[in-house]
Amino acid sequence: MRGAHVLNTAAALLPIALGLGCSGGDPTQTNLEFLPEMVDSVPFDAFSQNPNTRDGKTLMAPARGAVARGHTPLHFGPGPEEAARAGRELQSPLPAAPEHLKRGEVLYKRFCGACHGAVGAGDGPVVPPFPVPPNLTLPHAVNMPDGQIFHVISFGQGNMPPHKTQIAQADRWAIVQFVRSLQQPKGAKQ
Fold first, then answer.
1. Of the four listed, 59, 83, 111, 159, which is most buried by Cβ atoms within 10 Å?
2. 146-155 vs 169-182: helix axis angle to the nearest 10?
């Protein structure tokens, strides 16, 4: 029993003795290093060649199907067929609320108002040199499902560019709410 105790004590003291032996007392002498490649690893710049990767690039593309944190994937492509499918399948995750409507108004003015105008009539300040965009208060836009409007904002349509990389998903849904408020008859309450 006593031999096991001595052996356990020696095993416990060995790392301490090695640590003290490696630290050295003379500051002019180089200390011993344990796993030096972990201390002084070889760095590679993001755009430099890297012999350790398959394609020789340091900066690698994300894995197929990877989704950035905080983003919900949108499994639709561009085009009218996909817009119609989005109209059938997508529903707004935002409840109708004054704060979403206000946010949608701010974003509409920032991203949409230049072409579609302040009230959605297609008379924005950049229209004279560019083709007239659709009037958002006419029946073709009023009858469009929310998911289809969201798709058009996301992927663009005709001369309209896509905004999915500029506007977060929740904000695009807020714009849809604001567009719906523009489509309400004058004096109607929401």
1. 83
2. 120
